[in-house]
Structures are given as C-alpha cells and as structure tokens.
Amino acid sequence: MANASPHILVVDDDVIILKFIEFTLKGLGYQTTLAKNGKEAIEHANNQHFDLIISDLYMPLMDGNELVRHFRKSPEYKHTPFIFLSGNNEEETWIKNLNDGADDFITKPIKQKIFISKIKSHLKKAYLRADLINGARKNNINFDKGSLIYCANRIKPFPLSRKYIKTKIKVVYTDTDLFMALQEMNTWGIIIDDNANWAMDIIQKITEIVSQHIPVSLLLSDTQDTEKIDSLLNYQINTYLYKSLPSKLIIHQINSDIQREVILKNKYLNALNTAAKRSPIRCENDYELDVRDYNIQILHEPYDKLPGGDYYEIIEVDENRKIFVLGDVMGKKWDAWFFVPAYIAYIRSTINFFLNRKEFDFVASPGKFLEIINQYVFKDLKLTEVFTTLSIISICTASNKISVASAGALRPYYFNGADKTISQLNIVGTLLGVIPDARYQSLVHDFQQGDKLIFYTDGFTEATNDKNNEMIGDDAIFFVLEQNKEEKNLSPRKMEEELTHEFNVSNFDDDRTLMIIQRN
C-alpha cells in the first residue's frame, strides 16, 4: 500500500449506511469523508483529494449518475475509482452506470467481505495509474526530460525568466490546468505564487497529491509575515522562495532544486538497476519451447526497460507435463519488482514441495495450487497489501489437455482450430491475498491440432490509441488473433507489431507479457 492512508469519499442519503461504511473503512485504517448528497460531495472534493469514491445511485438533489459524470469531467478525478451502491440489480441499470463512468458496483444489502475485497482491489488498481500524477521516471534523466509547473496569478504573474531556468516551464492559472499538466508531464517541481489565490486555497490538496513524488516550492511576497509562514509549515513545502531577493538568486535556487532532483533520481535508478542485474529472478524477453507438436512462445517487456511487476515461470514436471506461471504484481517498475522475488519464491517452493510429495496433482488441478498460495500470501503481512494476478497453465502432451486456473487475471483467448472460432475462456478468480479462504476453479480443456491459446497482461489492454486517446482493451487482442488465427507458428512479436500498427499505439506505459500456446 501507499505510505499515506487512502482517503475515501462516501456519498449516501442514508445515515445508517454512511456510518456502517465509515466503521468498515476505518477498521482497515482508511480515512473517510461522508456526504449526504452529490452537492456536498463536490464541495468536499473541491477542497480535499480522495483516492476512491463510493456513492449511492439514487439520491436527492443529484443522483449518482450525475455525480460520476461531474467527476469524470475533472482531470484530477478522471481515473479515480468510483463505485456505486444500489439495491437495483437490473443489467440495463448497471450498463448505464458503467457507461457514465463508474468502475464497479456493490449491491445492497452490503456483504462486508465482498465490499472490502472490491475496495482493496480498486485502490490497488488506482495506484497503477499513479504515474499520471507522479511523472514517469526515465532511464536517461536530465533537465529536458521534465518540466516545472508554475501556479500563477493570471492578472499579475511574478516574472520567472524562462531563459535562465534549466528546464521547460508550464504556467497554469486554474486548478483544472494544474491537474491536467500533472497528467501530461514528467514534472520536476511545482512553484506556487502566494498571490495565486486559487492555488493557495487548495494548497493542502495539492501537497497531499504530489508531496511523495514532486517537490513543492512557495513563492512568498512578504518575508515578514511570520504568521502566514508558520501556518504553511503544516503542509509539505520543500522550498520557500522570496520575491524580495534579486531575480538571479531566485533562478539560481530554482535550478539548484531541480538539479538536486535529477541527481537523487539518477542515484536511485543506478542503484536499483545494479540490484536488478544481480537478482537471480530474471525473465527472458523472448522465450520459446517446443514439446512434441506443441509450441510455446512468450514475449516479456518491462516498462521503459526497467524491471517491473510482470513475471513468468516454467516448471518441468516430466517429459510430458509442464507448468507455466504468469503473474502481474499490481504496481509499476520498482514498486512492483521488489515483490516479484517473494511471489516467485512462494510459487517455486510450493509447487516443488507438493510435486515431490505427490499429494496434489497440480497439473490436473491448478486451482488447488492457487488456493494454497493464496493462504500463504494472505498471512504474509507485506504481500497481503500488494495484490497480484496469477494464471497457472499446465500442459500434458500425452493426454493433449491444458488446465487453467486464474486469480484475477485477464481471460485468455482460445482459437478452436477445428471450427475456426475464437472465444474467451470463462476462467476467473479473486486476486491473491484478498480473501483467506478463496476458492479457485480449474478449467480442463482438450487441445487439438491447430488450436491456439493466448494469455496476456494488462500492459497490452491498457495501452492507449494515440488517435482517440482511449485504451485499446481486449478487443485489440481479439482483432489481431482473428487476422492471424490460422498462421501455423504465430509469434508474440508479430502480434505486438500488428497491434501497435492497427491501433495506433506509439508506446506502452506498463510492463507487458504475451504468451501463445499452439499445437501444430
């Protein structure tokens, strides 16, 4: 989890439900703010930052659909998880809710286990999108790879010389412009002019959002106003700049602050790169294995060539049986990579232990393996706060059967070589570490000549189409598979090349892994 406790906005006109949710969330260590209607919710959101929003669907003054549409228009809340509460179980209602911008829904009466599971899951997914605000760290970090945001007074901005500041400056005059800039830029720092009343009014909100990742400087007009300066000490301000100083000194201090950020981030990345290179946990970028008439290929690309949360593992049971593990720790780059060795250690030790004892047949029932590993993860105080998706795929070339079990992973595509059809396997399951006694099904599938099975992580589906700025989704995988379904030896690299071309994807902003199993 993030260091700061998640702050959740709860909106409902029923006081009893508000108090029940508040009690549940506080039991998880989360901060809560309660609102009785949509207008109150908007007022709270104008002054505070929320990591997740829970709202009733039917309320006076403003219903839930109006509320979610309002939040989705704001750059700050464009990607914030929004969950509806309602006793209405009609499919058309939920489709409308999702189309209006909701991420999920929880039916009333609320079942506490399901409620907690969904809240935790959506919070973890929200952290995946943190780079929209935090700015992406790059391999080659220097001044021209980022920008400085200056929150100014539109009528009388304080002059900052662009000529002498060693990075680009983006001047913003409204909170909307600020949050939009944070999404679009890799930001070295934020400077707030104390005459920019719009920014000073929400300074607590700004520092709550960015203080862990982006330094905030305050440009002060009156150095003698000690009362004002003392009040600002409650916020996480990194540097105080004084307008009374000569312009050259102000610019020098700004450049020094940026250079310090560059040096710190370079040291950070160099140290982690060294650690990654020495790690025994390494996944090849391109992997291929032929077993009898089966061909298995894996494409694995960490984001920006830095180790991340995607991982895979191949376990040989005997000459006829193989187990493939494909996982995705929720998080990006180093934050996720630190937990990958722990997960792989659990997976290796558990499979080897039970294979040697021959107590369970993990090849026939991979769901049993997920149940065991889930119990281990839930008891691990560190791992239980870092969710992961996991797919277990076992292949038996003697019986020509493939068994699949899933913990929150994306549903794989299956091409039936006999009738030339494509479908998604109906295999789903709870994320690891959410519920201690979760049960996972095993789907056993006959695998005939010409069949193909495609597994992939969300680094592909959450890629953005440059033309419409929307995520390409599962449909992109389906489209590319449809175009190449009868190719005898389809490669992940070819699928990726066609996907990027057909869906206008210039770059991927997450780790991505694609595995193709085919029988020739």
Question: What's the helical proportion of residues?
Answer: 25-40%
Low-pLDDT stretches are: 131-143
Total strands: 21
User: What's the rounded overall pLDDT mean?
Assistant: 82
- Tally of distinct domains: 3
Explain what the structure shows.
The protein has 520 residues and is α/β, with parallel strands linked by helices. It is built from 17 helices and 21 strands. It has a 6-stranded antiparallel beta sheet. It starts with 6 loop residues before the first strand and ends with a strand. Residues 131-143 have low confidence and may be disordered. It holds the Pfam family SpoIIE.
Brief write-up:
The protein is an alpha/beta fold.
Topology:
Blueprint: E1 7-11, H1 15-27, E2 31-35, H2 38-47, E3 52-56, H3 64-72, E4 82-86, H4 91-100, E5 104-107, H5 112-128, H6 131-134, E6 147-151, E7 168-172, H7 175-184, E8 187-193, H8 197-201, H9 203-210, E9 216-220, H10 226-232, E10 239-242, H11 247-278, E11 286-291, E12 294-301, E13 310-316, E14 321-329, H12 333-337, H13 340-357, H14 366-379, E15 388-396, E16 401-407, E17 413-416, E18 421-424, E19 443-446, E20 452-456, H15 458-461, H16 473-484, H17 492-502, E21 512-519
Parallel strand pairs: 1-2, 1-3, 3-4, 4-5, 6-7, 6-8, 8-9, 9-10
Antiparallel strand pairs: 11-12, 12-21, 13-14, 14-15, 15-16, 16-19, 17-18, 17-20, 20-21
Helix pairs in contact: 2-3, 13-14, 16-17
InterPro entries: Bact_Sigma-Reg, CheY-like_superfamily, PPM-type-like_dom_sf, PPM-type_phosphatase-like_dom, Sig_transdc_resp-reg_receiver
Modified residues (4-aspartylphosphate): 56
Keywords: Hydrolase, Phosphoprotein
